[in-house]
Design brief:
With 667 residues, this protein is of the alpha/beta class. The protein has 22 helices and 20 strands. It is 45% helix and 14% strand. An eleven-stranded mixed beta sheet has the order 5-6-10-12-11-13-14-15-16-19-20, sandwiched between helices. Strands 3-4-7 form a three-stranded mixed beta sheet, with no helix packed on it. The chain has a two-stranded antiparallel ribbon with strand order 1-2. A hairpin with a 2-residue loop joins strand 19 and strand 20.
């Protein structure tokens, strides 16, 4: 399970490194001298054992601190000199022990080496058994995965998640209270962290503010609970969405903050999560998006997540509807909500110990696409300095307002209205029901030439995203994940729409390659799976193109290629496993039908921590126990996550079997 990545093409799994053996030499010397000297001094058997452990453990701590220090690990020459010095010290100790004490330290060394090898092996076996047991339990629930995601939620858990924050008029715990410009919020301590949940970052977009740009909250000294998640956005309830039973409201513009309870000397960097979904569903109350476990293990970071408007409440163009000219921002309201959240964070995060000048954004699916679009948006300039986007795809946004305008026309038909005035009079449930029926019409941001450039790729080339460092994650098996979220019918509709788009852009040569690919794949897995596989390859290439264009514009870009094998093949892997691994949400991942790889997750979380802190994306030998060096090379090389190991290589030839598609999309 442990892995070694040195930047070469030939990688290997490891349980222990040369560094561990070197520490064992000095530890053996300490245990041996401790016991021998005590025995010569006439101490009792019990005292000899105590002396042995005392000296051995102290020397192990001292030499371990030296061997695993950055000063040694960063420099190969220092590392080799340290190893040589350790061997020399042991040989000298052995000579002294044999010549003057009549005792060889070889037996102690043998015992120590067995300990160094045996303990990780035991841990490996235990983890393997635990993982096997968890996998067995998951397969009992999911079977072959053909039903998609299924969630057995307890009523008490649903009730707890649906609790609402209340104003506080009496006494409150001032140690858990944080004063911001917009109010005083009293959080809740959980083990080593403090969470502040459901903090409003803009006025509720209800009544006259429906379909209008977010409005800043006024200054306030009022005191509020911040112990419960805010309402999720009104959303389409797909078959595999976990938030069906979470309260939903148009009043959904809230955020959540997790911090370490230990006081920090300086301001901490901030990690802001943009939740997943397809712009019609999702939210921060999804356990997959929690940040508590990550902050529990990474106390020097402040974690923030937030909700934004979805579906017809966040992405619809009313410009051709009578009265729609009064709602010019409706096509991209979800993105404007995201900007408003980032502005609130910049203004108030220092009160929570965060550094407003060190903001890293992390997004999955629709959240990742949002980040890619905001990177080209002048309004969002300077609101974040680093971006980790996983499965973000500009192909899932409208490249012109036409599609979003058509959605508005269909909404009028569904609701039997003809003007904005009539739409505004409709209640939330009527609009939600209409959105459920109109899902296939697609709600997404629009490259409108106002908030978002008409050609985002060209904007990247023209340095619109300058100053932002990127990690772009590309999944190899995301279609299973999307099918599990949407359900089979909606997924097939999605694939059909994608095939239509591909055919529109394909010239004769490319169309011929596609037909040949489809014929071959249909024989292997059937037409439905062949179409899904082509769409997956098309989306992967589109993500790769974003990385290429950003690199051309001078941005620092690194790729991550998620090629892990799914625990249950039909559920797929990608966004769900990557999100859980990066955030440490083990229990949530089991709910989604998979099991976390603890060692792999530890490595990825450490790399995320380094990215957020502005450190070099490199793990030095044994910086994580049992793991050798990892050097994450820049684009076009990628860090490949594959079957419990990591390695670096270029991935262009992995993205598609239709080479003409790659040439068409990337060159």
């Amino acid at each position: 399970m442990y892995c070694c990545v040195t930047g070469s093409e030939n990688e290997m799994k490891k349980l222990f490194t040369a560094d561990d053996f070197m520490v064992a030499f000095i530890s053996a010397l300490g245990y041996g001298f401790g016991e021998t000297i005590a025995r010569i001094s006439g101490w009792s058997e019990l005292m000899c054992i105590a002396a042995s452990f005392a000296v051995g453990i102290v020397l192990e701590e001292i030499i371990g601190g030296i061997v695993f220090s950055k000063a040694v690990q960063k420099n190969m020459n220092r590392r080799m000199l340290t190893f040589a010095a350790i061997l020399l010290v042991f040989l000298l100790g052995q000579y002294i022990s044999v010549k003057w004490m009549g005792t060889s330290l070889a037996e102690y060394l043998q015992e120590e080496i067995l300990f160094v090898v045996g303990l990780p092996m035991i841990g490996f076996v235990v983890n393997l058994l635990l993982r096997g047991y968890r996998a067995w339990k998951i397969r009992k629930v999911y079977g072959d995965g053909s039903r998609g995601y299924v969630f057995d939620l307890k009523e008490e858990d649903i009730e707890e998640t649906n609790r609402e924050n209340r104003p506080i008029t009496g006494e409150y715990d001032e140690e858990l209270a944080v004063k911001t410009r917009t109010g005083i919020f009293v959080g809740e301590k959980q083990k080593k962290i403090i969470c502040y949940l459901g903090i409003p970052y803009a006025e509720p977009p209800v009544g006259e503010l429906r379909w209008r740009a977010p409005v800043s909250l006024p200054a306030s000294d009022a005191v509020f609970e911040a112990k419960n998640f805010g309402a999720s956005a009104i959303q389409v309830e797909h078959e595999g969405s976990i938030l069906k039973k979470h309260r939903q409201s148009e009043d959904c513009l809230s955020l959540n903050i997790c911090i370490g309870s230990k006081k920090a000397e300086g301001k901490r960097p901030v990690l802001v999560l943009f939740h997943h979904g397809d712009f019609t569903f999702g939210g921060t109350a999804d356990p997959l998006m929690y940040g508590a476990d990550y902050i529990n293990d990474h106390q020097d970071i402040v974690f923030v997540s937030f909700n934004y408007r979805l579906g017809i409440f966040g992405f619809i163009d009313f410009s051709e509807v009578p009265g729609g000219d009064a709602y010019p921002d409706a096509a991209n309201l979800g993105l404007l909500d995201q900007v408003a959240a980032l502005e609130w964070i910049r203004e108030n995060i220092s009160a929570f110990g965060g550094d407003p000048d060190r903001i890293t954004v992390l997004g999955f699916d629709a959240g990742a696409t949002s980040i890619l679009m905001l990177a080209s948006c002048g309004r969002a300039k300077g609101l974040f300095q680093k971006a980790f986007v996983f499965n973000g795809n500009l192909a899932t946004a409208y490249d012109s307002p036409d599609g979003s305008r058509a959605l508005a026309g269909n909404l009028l038909k569904e609701t039997q209205t003809s003007t904005m005035e009539e739409l505004l009079k409709l209640d939330t449930k009527t609009l939600k029901d209409a959105a459920q029926r109109l899902w296939q019409d697609m709600c997404a941001p629009t490259c409108d030439g106002n908030w978002i450039p008409v050609d985002v790729d060209q904007a990247y080339r023209d340095k619109a995203a300058s100053g932002i460092e990127f990690i772009i994650g590309i999944p190899a098996d995301e279609t299973g994940v999307l099918r599990s979220f949407l359900g089979r019918k909606k997924f097939d509709d999605f694939v059909s729409s994608g095939m239509t788009v591909i055919r529109q852009y394909a010239d004769d040569s490319l169309a011929g390659e596609i037909r040949e690919f489809m014929e071959t794949q249909k024989k292997l897995s059937g037409e439905s799976e062949a179409r899904a596989k082509l769409i997956e390859q098309w989306l992967a290439i589109r993500e790769y193109r974003s990385a290429a264009r950003l690199s051309e514009g001078g941005n620092k870009v690194r790729l991550l290629y998620w090629n892990e094998k799914a625990l249950i093949e039909k559920l797929g892997t990608g966004t769900v496993d990557a999100a859980a691994s990066l955030l440490g949400n083990e229990d949530a991942l089991q709910m989604y039908g998979s099991v976390i790889h603890q060692d792999l997750a530890e490595i990825l979380q450490k790399l995320l921590e380094k990215f957020v802190n502005g450190d070099t994306l490199q793990l030095y030998p044994n910086e994580i126990g049992g793991v050798d060096a990892i050097d994450w090379k820049a684009f076009p090389r990628a860090l490949v996550v594959s079957d419990d190991r990591l390695y670096c290589e270029t991935i262009e030839d992995r993205l598609t079997e239709v080479k003409g598609l790659l040439d068409f999309m990337v060159r």
